[in-house]
Amino acid sequence: MKLKKLAPELAAGIIDAGFDKDPRPVQSASIPKIKSGADVVVLSPENTGKSVALLIGVMLRLKKAEGEAPRAIVLANTKEQVFALEEQFNELATHTNLRTFSVFDQGIIQYQKDMIYEGLDVLFGTPKRINELMSITGIPMINLKVLAVDDAETLVAQNQHPVAYRIADGAKKLQCLLFATHWHEKFDDLEERMLKNPIIIEDK
User: Fold this and answer.
1) What's the pLDDT at 20?
2) Mean pLDDT for each consecutive 10-residue tract of the chain (204 residues)?
3) Is residue 8 part of a domain?
4) Is residue 116 part of a domain?
5) What is the reported pLDDT for 1?
6) For the chain, how many structural domains are there in total?
7) Which of 43, 63, 107, 152 has the most C-beta neighbours closer than 10 Å?
């Protein structure tokens, strides 16, 4: 992974985590494309490092804290996945001032809304809770620029993908990132509805 052109605070967390020395193929292939601002679909088996690629890509797109409204939403299917992604993101971004928060089903929704309005850069959440928060204007969309979906095949298999449409419809200009183990037939609908000339990266 080429880090020479990155600001030191962005490169430092990647180096600390060891991803500069031996990046996985899916990371080397996808991170530059994400950084460029393109819509990207990444298809890669479990344990190939695709979630790390997603997180590094989001970090490089945002770079530093800015404004109060979230600039990226990362969707994951369970509370446990949401917290795991946020924890790993914060490790990668430890030398930056990027702010994160996680929302999940059964959490106190008013508290979650209040915390979002305190100001953050990356919002991690389950589809159901993100949808509920949007229904009570709990997520300001004015600055949103990235939507990333981890395990996207599970999202569509559970018919949770309408929340992704809702997010896309509420944002002025959105980069969409889908990460999955395999292509799901419903991705055709997502591609038609949300993605603009997506780059498809398949790591077999």
Assistant:
1) 73
2) 74 84 87 95 94 96 96 97 97 96 96 97 98 97 97 95 94 95 93 93 85
3) no
4) yes
5) 59
6) 1
7) 152
Measured N-to-C along each axis, helices 50-62 and 79-92 cross at an angle, to the nearest 10 degrees, of 60
Cβ atoms < 10 Å from Cβ of 90: 17
Tell me the residue range of the domain where 65 lies: 24-202
Residue 203 has a pLDDT of 81
CATH number at residue 70: 3.40.50.300
Judge whether 16 lies within some domain.
no
Residues in Cβ contact with 62 at an 8 Å cutoff, skipping those fewer than 6 apart: 71, 72, 98, 121, 122, 146
Collapse the DSSP code of 73 into the 3-class scheme (helix H, G, I; strand E, B; otherwise coil) and give the result: strand
Q: What is the DSSP annotation of 115-174?
A: HHHH--SEEEE-HHHHHHHHHTT-S--TT--EEEESSHHHHHHTT-THHHHHHHHH-SS-
Residues 6 or more apart in contact with residue 32 via CB below 8 angstroms: 2
CA-based nearest residue to 77, from 163, 152, 133, 176: 152
- Map residue 72 onto helix, strand or coil: strand
